[in-house]
Amino acid sequence: MKTVDLAHEEHTLAELLTLAKRDSILIHSAAGEDFLLEPADDFEREVAMLGQSERFLSFLRERSEEPGGKSLTDLRKGG
């Protein structure tokens, strides 16, 4: 992982994206905030899209309310 401190050196967005193609970049902003820049893979894109889908989130809410599940404790006891 490469660290870039924007308080001490200037980079364009294009330069940061070029660096991120080779390795994850930890960016320290001049305001003292930290950001991580790295390429997103297909799975990460899908997770981001599903997290914004009201239809999918509604489905998860409905599933979480269904009865009949077993707790981890019950499973460990052999039930």
Write the layout of secondary structure elements.
Layout: E1 2-5, H1 13-22, E2 25-28, E3 34-37, H2 42-51, H3 54-64, H4 72-76
Parallel strand pairs: 1-2
Antiparallel strand pairs: 2-3
Give a quick set of tags describing it.
single chain; 79 residues; alpha+beta; 2 domains; three-stranded mixed beta sheet; 4 helices; 46% helix
Structure commentary:
- The structure is a single chain.
- The protein has 2 domains: 2-37, no CATH class; 42-67.
- The chain has helices spanning 13-22, 42-51, 54-64, 72-76; strands at 2-5, 25-28, 34-37.
- The chain is elongated.
- The chain is α+β, with helices and mostly antiparallel strands.
- A 3-stranded mixed sheet has the order 1-2-3, with helices on one face.
- The mean pLDDT is 91.
**Rounded to an integer, what's the Rg over CA atoms?**
21 Å
Beta-strand content bin: 15-25%
Strand order of the largest sheet: 1-2-3
> Which whole number gives the mean pLDDT?
91
- Following the backbone from N to C, one meets helices and strands in this order, namely EHEEHHH
Molecular shape: elongated
Low-confidence runs of at least 5 consecutive residues: none
Helix content: 40-55%
The tally of strands reads: 3
Calculate the terminal CA-CA distance, rounded to whole Å.
Answer: 46 Å
Characterize the biggest β-sheet: 3 strands, mixed
Oligomer: single chain
Q: Structural class per helix/strand content? A: alpha+beta
Q: How many individual helices?
A: 4
Number of domains: 2
